[in-house]
Amino acid sequence: MNKKYKNISPKIRKRGVIVNLFIKFDDEKSLRKLSRRMQKAPYIQNKNLIKEEVYIKFDNDEKIRVLIYRGKNTKPNATGLLWLHGGGHALATPETEEPIIEKFVMNTNTVVIAPDYTLSVKKPYPTALLECYTCLLWTKNNAKSLGINENQLMIGGVSAGGGLTAALSLYARDKKEVDISFQMPLYPMINHKTIYDGTVKDDFLLWNLRQNEVAWKVYLGEFYGADDIPKYASPLLEIDYLGLPPTYTFVGREDPFCNDTIEYVSRLNDFGVNAECDVYEHMYHGFEVVNPDFSLSKVAIKKLIHAYKYAIEHY
């Protein structure tokens, strides 16, 4: 164990290895099986959150399940935060992100909108992105009844949710129908080229390069292997970052998305976008989720909330 994951902090290594056993997959079949299992997994209701479930119209007769989170002390004219859950586009539900949603709701005057977007194992790109955009427009159009300031809509998410965040920022900028004040694409899945090619060791915990390739294959669907993959599917393909919202993100050094995250923020900065990235040494993918009580996890969340509060005050 120690030899394989020698670059990962021993303080969080053991738990990562254990959790890794329960979320392993190595091909499309096992990914779909894991997805079905996770959909049935129970979760503990967060008593600090007031949750409302609604269904909004999407395409034809289809509807999107959306969860709305508030705190007991949430006041009118709150910041609206569209939060997109992670899971490689194929796993999980918005409920799995309640621990981080609680941080936003309890520390700021925020209403969180969390869409249960269609997973890639059911429908590939662009369904999830279009659903998230529909939710963003719905939030803007219903801001008053939601108790949200329509001029302060923010978005964020982890991993695949971070990738959808980056994609949604691009899509909204180009569509010009709704303004995003701030984005938080945390350790985002934004580059379909980040896969195992045999030149590096694939000893990443919780999410490795082989798994990433399988997840991208399922998400891209008919676009997989094509020369014309849309930038909204793989946001790091974009070459023009002008007009994107101010950004905050963080990533672990031992996360397969580390280099992509740093590159993304660098490009934003090159185009004059106020963007910041904190890199945590010896930390793996989703370290703060798996180890919430670990000191560096607390630091990461504290800095995230600080950046979010700054955005509320300045954007």
Give a brief description.
The protein is an alpha/beta fold and 315 residues long.
Q: How is the largest sheet built, in terms of strand order?
A: 1-2-4-3-5-6
**Structure summary, number of beta strands:** 8
> What percent of the residues sit in helical stretches (DSSP H or I)?
25-40%
**Number of helical elements:** 10
CATH topology: Rossmann fold
Per CATH, the architecture is 3-Layer(aba) Sandwich
Structural domains: how many: 1
Pairing-aware structural class of the strands and helices?
A: alpha/beta
| Dominant shape | globular
Strand content: 15-25%
Element-by-element helix/strand order = HHEEEHEHHEHEHEHEHH
Average pLDDT across residues? Answer: 96
Quick one: CATH superfamily? Alpha/Beta hydrolase fold, catalytic domain
The CATH C-level name is Alpha Beta
Rounded to the nearest angstrom, the distance between the terminal CA atoms is 45 Å
